[in-house]
Design goal:
The complex is a heterodimer.
Chain A (H helix, E strand, L loop, with lengths): L2 H30 L7 H18 L4 H29 L4 H12 L4 H8 L25 H6 L3 H19 L1 H11 L1 H6 L4 H27 L11 H11 L4 H23 L7 H19 L2 H4 L18
Chain B lengths: L4 E5 L5 H25 L4 H14 L3 H24 L7 H18 L5 H30 L3 H21 L31 E3 L2 E3 L1 H19 L1 H11 L1 H6 L4 H28 L4 H7 L1 H11 L4 H21 L8 H21 E5 L12 H5 L5
Antiparallel strand pairs in B: 1-4, 2-3
Helix pairs in contact in B: 1-14, 2-3, 2-13, 3-7, 3-10, 3-12, 3-13, 4-5, 4-6, 4-10, 4-12, 5-6, 5-10, 7-8, 7-13, 12-13, 12-14
Classes of the chains: A mainly alpha, B mainly alpha.
C-alpha cells in the first residue's frame, strides 16, 4: 500500500467520520444528562430525508437553500427527540424500548422512507451540495492540504462544535450542572437544578445533532436519497460514546478511526486493490465496534470510564 | 413536577388494562396514521379498506398473512423472552440470518435423509446456528459486562454481510454453481423437495408448519417463565440483579442461557424461512423483510407475554402482508414501519396508564426534599 492510498483513505475517513462526530456529540450530551437515546439511527435518517427534500424543492441561491436544509434536518431530528424525551422523561417509559421504537418509526421501513416516497425525491442527484472550501488557499500543501484545508463547511462546523462542547462541559456552570444531573440527579435537584429541563434540553440537542449528522449524507457526502442510507452509522455513534468514555476529545478520535474502517473498502475498491472480499470491508466497522466495546469494558478500562451514574434511570422525586 | 399532572404508582394494576391497552393503542395508532395519510393526500378509509382486503378477505390473503406472521412469531418470542428477563437481545435479525444459513446447510448436507428426520435436523441446525451467534454478545456480557444491546445489534450487520458473501462473492457450499443462469444472477442452491416443510390446509387457508411449531414454543416458554425454578430465578434477576446475586443465583450462567434460548428461537425463524417458504438461502429477501426488528414491535405490543405474541404476530403479519401487497405509488413503502412505530409509542404510553394513576393536582406542590438515592434507584425497574 503506497502513501497515496493511505492519504486517500485518510481523506475519505474524515468524510465518513463527520456524521459520526455530529451524531456522537449529540448522543454524548443526551447521555451526560442521563438519557440513553437508541433512536439516533432513525433521527439521522429523518434529518437526511428532510434536508434533501428542502435542497431539492427550493429554487433559491445555493447558500440559502443549504442553510434552510440544514435547519430542516435539525428540526426533524429534534422532533424525533421530543417524542423520546416526552416518553422517557415525562412519562418514564423504558429508555431502551422507546429508543428502539423511534428507530423503527423513523427508520428504513418507517417515516423516512414514507416521506422520501411521498415527496418523490428518491434516486435523483442533489441540486445543491456543500463543496470543499480550500481554506486560505492551502489545499495543495502536502498531506495537511487535502486533510485540513480542503474540507466542506460541515467538517469545519463539526470541529468548532467539538471544541464548543468541551468548553461547555468542563468550563461552564451549565456544563457542570449537566454532569451533576447525569451523575446524581437527586443531589442536583437538591441544589436547585431543574433536572427535567436539563434532560429535555440535552435530549433535544442530541436529536438535532443526529439530524445534522444525517444531513451530512444528503448534502455533502453523496447527495442522493435512498432508504436507510445511513446504514448503521447511528448505532456506531452510540457505541462511540461508550468507548470514548463520554469524552468529546476521544469521541472525535474514535469517529475518524471508524471513518478509516468505513473508507478502507470503497477506497481500495476504486483502485482495484482487492485483498479481501468486499463484504469483509463492509462488515469491518461493525466488527471493530464489537471489539472496541469489549475492550472498553475490560477491568483496565473500567477504572477510567466515566459512565454517567444515572444513565438510563428515570428521575422521580417520589413526591405525593 | 410535570405541570398540573400528578403521576402516582398504582399498587395493583387492574387485569383488564393489560388487554385494553394494546387494543386501544392499535386503534389510536390507526387514527394517527389516518391523519398522516390525509396530510399526504391519501384517503385513509380506502387505504385501510385495501389493507384489510389484502391481508384478510382477498383470495389467498389469509394464507399470505400467515407467511409473514410465522417469522414474526419466532422473532417476537425471541424478543419477548429476552426483554422479559431484562436481557436486551436486539440481535434477532442476525440470529435469524445465521439460522437460515445453518438450516440450509443442514438441509443440503442431509438431503438424502427421510423427511421427518430431515425436517427435525433443519430445525435443530437453525436453532443451533442462531444460538451460537447469540452467545457472542452473551459471553461478552457475562465475562466483560459489555453492553449486549449494541454488540447484539452490530452482529446483525455482520451476519447480513456474511450471508451476502456466501451467495454473491464466493464459491461457497450454499451457492448454486452449476445452473447456467446462476453465474449471471448468483443464487443459493435449492434444497431437495423432501426438505420443504408440510403446511396444514384448513379450507382455503394454509397454515405453515413453522407457525404451529411457534405456538408450541410459546406455550413452552410461558410454562418455563411461570412455573419453573429457572423462570423464577430469571424474573428475580430481571427485577433486581443485586438480590439475585445475594441469593446465590448464578447470574453469568443465566445470561448465557437466556441468550441461547432467545437466539435459538430466532434461529428457528431462519429454519422456517428455508423450510416453510424459500427452500434456498436468499440474503436479499431476508434482509428486506426486517423480521428480526419487527419482532421487537410484536413483543412490546404483546406486553412480553408469549401467548399474546401468537395473536400479535398475526396482526403485524397482516399489516406487513398488506404493505407488500399494496406497495406502489398510492401506498408508500414506509407506511408499515411508521404505523408499527406509532403503535409502539401508544402501547408504551398506555403501559404507563397500567402502572401509574394519572390525575390532576389538587393543590400546589409542597416543597419536598429530594428522595434519597436508594429510592431514586428503584426507578430503574420501570
Amino acid at each position: 500500500m503506497n502513501s497515496n492510498v493511505i492519504l486517500a483513505v485518510l481523506v475519505s475517513a474524515i468524510a465518513f467520520g463527520t456524521p459520526l462526530v455530529l451524531a456522537g456529540l449529540g448522543e454524548l450530551l443526551a447521555e451526560r444528562s442521563g438519557v440513553l437515546n437508541l433512536g439516533v439511527e432513525g433521527m439521522m435518517l429523518m434529518g437526511a430525508v428532510c434536508a434533501f427534500c428542502v435542497s431539492q424543492k427550493l429554487h433559491w441561491s445555493s447558500p440559502l437553500v443549504l442553510l434552510l436544509a440544514v435547519l430542516a434536518s435539525m428540526v426533524a431530528g429534534g422532533a424525533m427527540a421530543l417524542i423520546h424525551a416526552f416518553l422517557t422523561i415525562t412519562i418514564r417509559v423504558n429508555q431502551i424500548v422507546s429508543g428502539l421504537a423511534i428507530t423503527i418509526f423513523a427508520g428504513i421501513i418507517g417515516l423516512s422512507s414514507y416521506l422520501g416516497q411521498v415527496w418523490n425525491i428518491g434516486g435523483v442527484a442533489g441540486k445543491h451540495q456543500f463543496n470543499d472550501l480550500n481554506l486560505f488557499g492551502l489545499k495543495n500543501l502536502p498531506i495537511v492540504g487535502p486533510l485540513i484545508f480542503n474540507e466542506d463547511a460541515f467538517v469545519y462546523a463539526s470541529w468548532v462544535l467539538v471544541v464548543a462542547v468541551m468548553f461547555y462541559l468542563y468550563r461552564t456552570r451549565p456544563g457542570l450542572y449537566l454532569r451533576a444531573v447525569g451523575e446524581n440527579p437527586a443531589a442536583a435537584d437538591a441544589m436547585g437544578i431543574n433536572v427535567i429541563a436539563y434532560r429535555y434540553t440535552h435530549t433535544l440537542i442530541g436529536g438535532m445533532l443526529a439530524g445534522l449528522g444525517g444531513a451530512y449524507f444528503t448534502l455533502a457526502l453523496a447527495p442522493i436519497w435512498t432508504d436507510g442510507l445511513t446504514a448503521g452509522d447511528g448505532w456506531i455513534a452510540i457505541a462511540l460514546v461508550i468507548f470514548a468514555f463520554w469524552r468529546p476529545d476521544l469521541l472525535v478520535l474514535g469517529a475518524y478511526l471508524f471513518g478509516i474502517f468505513s473508507a478502507l473498502g470503497p477506497t481500495l475498491q476504486t483502485r482495484n486493490i482487492t485483498v479481501l472480499p468486499s463484504e469483509f470491508y463492509s462488515a469491518l466497522p461493525f466488527l471493530m465496534t464489537v471489539v472496541a466495546l469489549a475492550a472498553a469494558s475490560t477491568s483496565w478500562a473500567n477504572r477510567r470510564v466515566g459512565t454517567p451514574a444515572s444513565l438510563g434511570i428515570p428521575y422521580t422525586r417520589e413526591e405525593g | 413536577m410535570i405541570g398540573p399532572l400528578k403521576i402516582e404508582r398504582r399498587l395493583d394494576s387492574p387485569k383488564w388494562l393489560k388487554v385494553a391497552v394494546p387494543i386501544a393503542s392499535v386503534f389510536l395508532a390507526a387514527i394517527i396514521v389516518g391523519i398522516l395519510l390525509l396530510a399526504t393526500g391519501h384517503n385513509p378509509f380506502s387505504t385501510y379498506h385495501q389493507m384489510y382486503s389484502a391481508s384478510v378477505t382477498a383470495d389467498g390473503a389469509l394464507s399470505s398473512t400467515f407467511v409473514y406472521a410465522t417469522p414474526m412469531l419466532f422473532t417476537g418470542l425471541c424478543a419477548a423472552f429476552a426483554f422479559r428477563m431484562r436481557t436486551w437481545n436486539i440481535g434477532g435479525e442476525g440470529q435469524l440470518y445465521m439460522g437460515a444459513v445453518g438450516a440450509s446447510a443442514t438441509g443440503l448436507v442431509l438431503g438424502s435423509w427421510p423427511r421427518p428426520l430431515l425436517i427435525i435436523a433443519m430445525i435443530l441446525g437453525g436453532a443451533f446456528a442462531g444460538m451460537l451467534w447469540a452467545e457472542i454478545p452473551a459471553l461478552l456480557r457475562a465475562y466483560l459486562r459489555t453492553n449486549e444491546i449494541l454488540t447484539s445489534l452490530m452482529l446483525n450487520y455482520v451476519a447480513g454481510f456474511f450471508m451476502y458473501y456466501l451467495i454473491y462473492d464466493s464459491d461457497s457450499y450454499w451457492r448454486d454453481l452449476t445452473t447456467p443462469g446462476a453465474s449471471v444472477f448468483p443464487t443459493g442452491k435449492s434444497l431437495v423437495p423432501n426438505a420443504s416443510w408440510p403446511g396444514i390446509t384448513i379450507g382455503s387457508v394454509t397454515i405453515p408448519m413453522g407457525f404451529v411449531l411457534g405456538i408450541g414454543l410459546a406455550v413452552a416458554l410461558l410454562g418455563l417463565i411461570r412455573s419453573t425454578r429457572y423462570g423464577f430465578e430469571m424474573r428475580v434477576m430481571g427485577d433486581s440483579p443485586q438480590a439475585a446475586n445475594y441469593s446465590g443465583i448464578r447470574t453469568k450462567r443465566k445470561i448465557l442461557s437466556v441468550m441461547a434460548i432467545s437466539g435459538g428461537i430466532a434461529g428457528i425463524a431462519g429454519s422456517s424461512q428455508i423450510g416453510d417458504f424459500g427452500h434456498v438461502l436468499d440474503p436479499r429477501g431476508l434482509e428486506q423483510a426486517q423480521y428480526g426488528y419487527t419482532g421487537i414491535v410484536v413483543a412490546a405490543l404483546a406486553l412480553y407475554n408469549p401467548l399474546a405474541v401468537v395473536l400479535v404476530s398475526l396482526l403485524i403479519g397482516g399489516l406487513t402482508n398488506a404493505g407488500f401487497a399494496l406497495e406502489g405509488p398510492s401506498f408508500p413503502t414506509g407506511l408499515v414501519g411508521t404505523m408499527e412505530g406509532i403503535i409502539l409509542f401508544t402501547v408504551l404510553g398506555g403501559e404507563i396508564l397500567a402502572r401509574y394513576r394519572i390525575g390532576l393536582r389538587h393543590r400546589a406542590p409542597t416543597k419536598v426534599g429530594p428522595a434519597p438515592a436508594s429510592v431514586t434507584a428503584t426507578g430503574a425497574a420501570s
